[in-house]
Design goal:
The complex is a heterodimer of chains A (314) and B (249). In chain A, helix 3 packs across helix 4 and helix 5 runs parallel beside helix 8. Chain A is elongated and about 60 Å long. Helices cover 27% and strands 28% of the residues of chain A. Chain A has 314 residues and is an alpha/beta fold. Chain B is an alpha/beta fold and 249 residues long. Chain B is built from six helices and 13 strands. In chain B, the strands form two sheets. In chain B, strands 9-8-7-10-6-1-4-5-11 form a nine-stranded mixed beta sheet, sandwiched between helices. In chain B, a hairpin with a 3-residue loop joins strand 7 and strand 8. In chain B, helix 2 crosses helix 5 and helix 3 crosses helix 4. The termini of chain B are far apart. The model of chain B has no long low-confidence stretch (mean pLDDT 96). Classes of the chains: A alpha/beta (314), B alpha/beta (249). Strand 16 of chain A pairs parallel with strand 13 of chain B. The structure holds flavin-adenine dinucleotide and adenosine monophosphate. Flavin-adenine dinucleotide (FAD) sits at the interface of chains A and B. Flavin-adenine dinucleotide sits at the interface of chains A and B.
Chain lengths: 314, 249
């Protein structure tokens, strides 16, 4: 077995679930060493040390890692690389930014969005918006990859305690600087971790209708809210709601697509959901081809009725 | 400031691709090909920088077969100044493309590389970050807003939690997200004019790049298809089935 270095993404407060999915992927390839980078992140390192499967934690605690900028993080991975056969991150915005950069620096061809691990050198990944799966074999001595969280169960957060080692090589960054972040307030579950997702598309017509018709149903189902690109482009909801090939990849137990036609780029992001419900007035909408339960009709009359019906359940 | 825009020729985003029956790849025979949508956005952004007199010259480059000249012509018609085709008989992986782009950056003394975040065929989302890494330049990935001053690129990025703005010391690599801009259609006169713009064809070895592929494709398969389910007649039926049959609410 090899040695897998798994990048632990966190938000300064807690570890992202996707990091635990990545640990599961890493465990298939070798002993997992978790790398935590940030500023004042003792608590994150501790939390990482008890995730099931983690054999050791390396913590890089320095101001340079405050904002998860790609340049110093990739340098950190390059420093650590010699001890590992595999370097893995979840395919999140951060994972996708740092893994290929580090791979370039290490002269390795990275493997993006891995959904299956065949052996230490052979991996399955979707191509063409998920319309095909490619099995690829890497001849690089060291493999760098991002893994799709929905394809690996999250490692339980409460295993045995692993030792924590401090990384103390100074890493400089003079090339990039964090300026600001715009994080829309969202009290609902996070899209990529939610058990239920209620998504709206262009059919909703405006942001007001999202708030009036989609949000109450999401709240009753303790669901996250998602959207098609058309809905995001039209400004109905912020960009971090987008589900799809170029947005977030989700696979909840229940995905409700409302006023979404089902373009291949949207399907790429949600077709692995356990149960799919589609509500659309066009009975030929492609979304019905993947829906377990389809309802043809006008969302403006269906949603208020659904809202009332869910009340009866509570 | 010279701006380099790499553009890839890919199967058009409207085409539903088919896997070859022998599992060796995707059937591209007779399929409509276009410029990667993210690269169109990169070309548009570069042209806007030129209109603002921030960019002095826009060089577009494609790595691939001779037919890639089509997408270079499209970029020239949108407003790029000249094209470079790095001729390759097969599809090169991102690491090889990044090495070739690095060599071209050095030859042309480019200050900014504006490129797509992802090619919609291989969905790798890697080339820009790899190029930035091997150049030792900062990277602004998934850009939805770009402001360039004399020595800094301020890039607003689409990240999982919303938006993040970073300041990058130039030279830098920027990769585009969908909401950065709306690419223009080339007008007929511009299409005509683009025919006269130069496209240089060079071989990888002329750029001093030797690369052997690291990934081999074992096979390509069609993912398990979901069977379409049933149509429900009423909201009551829907809720009932979700509760009792699917047991998800
Ligand atoms: C490179 C690229 C990447 C892309 N990435 C993504 C991505 O990640 N995610 C994504 O979602 N898209 C993506 N797209 C866009 C995608 O191709 C589609 O344009 C988009 O998904 C369409 O969104 P929609 O279904 O909301 O809108 P439409 O296709 O306009 O569909 C609206 C639907 O609402 C229905 N409707 C309208 N009114 C009502 C009503 N009153 N009651 C019931 N139903 C109603 C209509 O019948 C229709 O089916 C991408 C495109 C490109 C080119
Ligand atoms: N063969 C190529 N020719 C030109 N540009 C390319 C090529 N391959 C990748 N690129 C650029 O790299 C970006 C990301 O591609 P990828 O990393 O393959 O998803 C694309 O949007 C292009 O800008």
């Amino acid at each position: 077995m090899g040695q897998a270095l798994v990048f632990i993404e966190h938000d300064g407060t807690e570890i992202k679930t996707q990091a635990r999915n990545a640990i599961t992927a890493g465990s298939k390839l070798g002993d997992v060493v978790a790398v935590v980078a940030g500023y004042n992140v003792d608590h994150i390192a501790k939390a990482a040390s008890v995730i099931s499967g983690v054999k050791k934690v390396v913590v890089a605690d320095d101001e340079v890692f405050s904002f998860a900028l790609a340049e110093p993080l990739a340098d950190l991975l390059v420093h650590l690389a010699p001890s590992y056969s595999h370097i893995i991150a979840a395919s999140t915005a951060i994972g996708k930014s740092i893994i290929p950069r580090a791979a370039g620096l290490l002269d390795v061809q990275p493997i993006s969005e891995v959904i299956g691990i065949i052996d230490a050198n052979t991996f399955v990944r979707p191509i063409y918006a998920g319309n095909a799966n490619a099995t690829v074999r890497s001849s690089d001595t060291r493999k760098l990859m991002t893994v799709r969280a929905t394809s690996f169960d999250p490692a339980p957060p409460d295993g045995a305690t692993a030792p924590i080692e401090v990384f103390d090589v100074a890493i400089a960054n003079t090339k990039s600087r964090f300026v600001s972040a715009e994080v829309p307030k969202n009290e609902r579950p996070e899209l990529t971790a939610a058990r239920v997702i209620v998504s709206g598309g262009r059919g909703l017509q405006n942001g007001e209708n999202f708030r009036k018709l989609i949000y109450p149903i999401a709240d009753k189902l303790c669901a996250a809210v998602g959207a098609s690109r058309a809905a995001v482009d039209a400004g109905f909801v912020p960009n971090d709601y987008q589900v799809g090939q170029t947005g977030k990849i989700v696979a909840p137990d229940l995905y409700v697509a409302i006023g979404i036609s089902g373009a291949i780029q949207h399907l790429a992001g949600m077709k692995d959901s356990k149960i799919i419900v589609a509500i659309n007035k066009d009975e030929d909408a492609p979304i019905f081809q993947v829906a377990d339960y389809g309802m043809v009709g006008d969302l403006f009359s269906i949603l208020p009725e659904l809202d009332r019906e869910l009340d009866c359940l509570a | 400031m010279k701006v380099l825009v790499p553009v890839k020729r890919v199967v058009d985003y409207n085409v539903k691709v088919r896997v070859k029956s022998d599992g060796s790849g995707i059937d591209t025979a007779g399929v409509k090909m276009s410029m990667n949508p993210f690269d169109e956005i990169a070309v548009e952004e570069a042209v806007r920088l030129k209109e603002q007199r921030v960019a002095s010259e826009i060089i577009v480059v494609s790595v691939g077969i001779n037919a890639c000249q089509d997408v270079l012509r499209t970029a020239l018609a949108m407003g790029a100044d000249r094209g470079v085709l790095i001729a390759a008989t097969e599809t090169l992986e991102p690491l090889a493309v990044a090495k070739l782009l690095k060599a071209l950056v050095a030859r042309e003394i480019v200050q900014l590389v504006m490129m797509g975040k992802q090619a919609i065929d291989d969905d790798m989302n890697a080339t820009g970050q790899m190029l930035a890494g091997i150049l030792g330049w900062p990277q602004g990935t998934f850009a939805s807003k770009v402001v360039i001053t004399a020595d800094t690129a301020t890039v607003t990025r689409e990240v999982d939690s919303g938006l993040e703005t970073v300041a990058l010391a130039l030279p830098a690599v920027i990769t585009t997200d969908l909401r950065l801009n709306e690419p223009r259609y080339a007008s007929l006169p511009n299409v005509m004019r683009a025919r006269k713009k130069p496209i240089e064809v060079i071989a990888p070895h002329e750029l001093g790049v030797e690369h052997s592929p690291r990934l081999t494709v074992v096979n390509v398969t069609e993912p398990a298809r979901r069977a379409a389910g049933i149509k429900v007649k009423s909201v009551q039926e829907l809720v009932e089935r979700l509760r009792k049959e699917a047991k998800v609410i």
